[in-house]
């Protein structure tokens, strides 16, 4: 950040250009602040602090608009910028549409807030009751049960599943999977949502800019005309390409920690159905070989796998 007071210029770093878009994408796709903080730390960025990641996601400078956090005054006490006004524009590291999606994800009531040291159960959001299809949630041993168990959310009468038993069974099924991993890469379409959101963001902040009435009206008309033009343009739908990765599902699975395993299952759309203690009634639905769109996990662990193969060959 360089420049005189009230006119600081934000200059992105090489690491920022590389990792910020994926960090925002991970939050927009449903990962928690803790998960993204750990991923960044694994790539040598930050200390793994979820609060710091949250401040980054909330910062509009990442979409190219630096705004006043409070009323800013000159040396004579006159207001130079009102709180929320756009002070200047800088190089965006993410487009306005992705920034909004990530912030909407943080605002969503369905996102559960977790402390920095808490880890979700392996099959949280993945396991369902084999008797009715309702989600299973984890109960803890200290809440009256002899051991932690997955319980049907729809009916307390359906048999609980011991957490250790089901997690171990899924671990074994995945570790024994001899299929090659499939990575789907999303090829973005073109729907002009980023440009539309940028125009709407400026429209929302226009009254804070301190323009003369005629100038403000003229700028508002320009922005609305540009928004209409963008909305009229034809959209190109996104598409996916599937790549066969040079690693088996079982080999990849054994390299993942619990958070990464859970993310693998979620990204691939895998569902585990179980009830009671008899594994003969349990099943895994979906394609366990699917790494999910983007395949970020492969990028995170490929060096581990390559190193492991090298030591095996040695």
Give your account of this protein's structure.
With 314 residues, the chain is α+β, with helices and mostly antiparallel strands. It has 2 domains: 14-107 and 188-232, Hect, E3 ligase catalytic domain fold; 127-185 and 241-313, no CATH class. 40% of the residues lie in helices and 17% in strands. It has 10 helices and 13 strands. The chain has helices spanning 14-28, 33-42, 50-58, 96-107, 163-175, 193-205, 213-232, 249-254, 258-267, 296-313; strands spanning 65-67, 72-73, 79-81, 86-89, 127-129, 136-139, 149-152, 161-162, 180-187, 239-248, 271-274, 283-285, 290-293. The strands form 5 sheets. It has a 3-stranded mixed β-sheet with strand order 5-11-12, with no helix packed on it. Strands 6-7-8 form a 3-stranded antiparallel β-sheet. It has a 3-stranded mixed β-sheet with strand order 10-9-13. Strand 7 and strand 8 form a beta hairpin. Mean pLDDT is 80; it is low at 109-118.
Give the uncertain stretches in residue-range form: 109-118
Structural class call reads alpha+beta
Architecture per CATH nomenclature, i.e. the level-2 architecture of the largest domain: Alpha-Beta Complex
Question: Strand content of the residues, in percent?
Answer: 15-25%
Tell me the count of domains. 2
Largest sheet: 3 strands, mixed
- Helical stretch tally: 10
The CA-CA distance between the termini, in Å, is: 48 Å
Percentage of helical residues? 40-55%
CATH level 1 class label of the largest domain = Alpha Beta
Shape type: elongated
Structural Rg = 24 Å
Lateral arrangement of strands in the main beta sheet: 5-11-12
> What is the H/E order?
HHHEEEEHEEEEHEHHEHHEEEH
CATH topology of the largest domain: Hect, E3 ligase catalytic domain fold
| Average residue-wise pLDDT | 80
Query: What's the total count of β strands?
Result: 13
């Amino acid at each position: 950040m360089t420049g005189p007071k009230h006119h600081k210029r934000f200059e992105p770093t090489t690491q920022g250009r590389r990792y910020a878009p994926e960090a925002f994408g991970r939050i927009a796709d449903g990962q928690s602040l803790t998960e993204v903080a750990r991923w960044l730390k694994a790539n040598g960025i930050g200390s793994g602090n979820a609060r710091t990641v949250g401040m980054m996601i909330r910062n509009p400078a990442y979409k190219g608009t630096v705004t006043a956090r409070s009323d800013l005054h000159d040396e004579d006490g006159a207001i130079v910028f009102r709180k929320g006004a756009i002070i200047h524009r800088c190089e965006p590291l993410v487009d306005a549409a992705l920034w909004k999606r990530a912030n909407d994800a943080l605002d969503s009531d369905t996102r559960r807030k977790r402390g920095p040291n808490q880890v979700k159960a392996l099959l949280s959001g993945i396991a369902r009751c084999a008797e009715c299809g309702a989600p299973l949630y984890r109960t803890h041993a200290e809440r009256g049960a002899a051991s932690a168990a997955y319980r049907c959310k729809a009916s307390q009468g359906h048999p609980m599943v011991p957490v250790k038993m089901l997690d171990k069974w899924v671990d074994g099924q995945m570790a024994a999977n001899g299929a090659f991993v499939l990575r789907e890469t999303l090829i973005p379409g073109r729907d002009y949502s980023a440009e539309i959101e940028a125009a709407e963001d400026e429209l929302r902040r226009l009254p804070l800019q301190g323009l003369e009435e005629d100038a403000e009206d003229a700028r508002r008309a320009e922005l609305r005309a540009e928004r209409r033009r963008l909305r009229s343009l034809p959209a190109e739908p996104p598409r996916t390409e599937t790549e066969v990765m040079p690693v088996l599902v079982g080999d990849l699975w054994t390299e993942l920690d619990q958070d990464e395993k859970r993310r693998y299952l979620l990204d691939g759309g895998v569902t585990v159905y179980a009830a009671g203690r008899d594994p003969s009634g349990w099943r895994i639905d979906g394609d366990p070989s699917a790494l999910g769109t983007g395949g970020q996990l492969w990028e995170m662990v490929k060096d581990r796998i390559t190193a492991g193969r090298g030591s095996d060959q040695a």
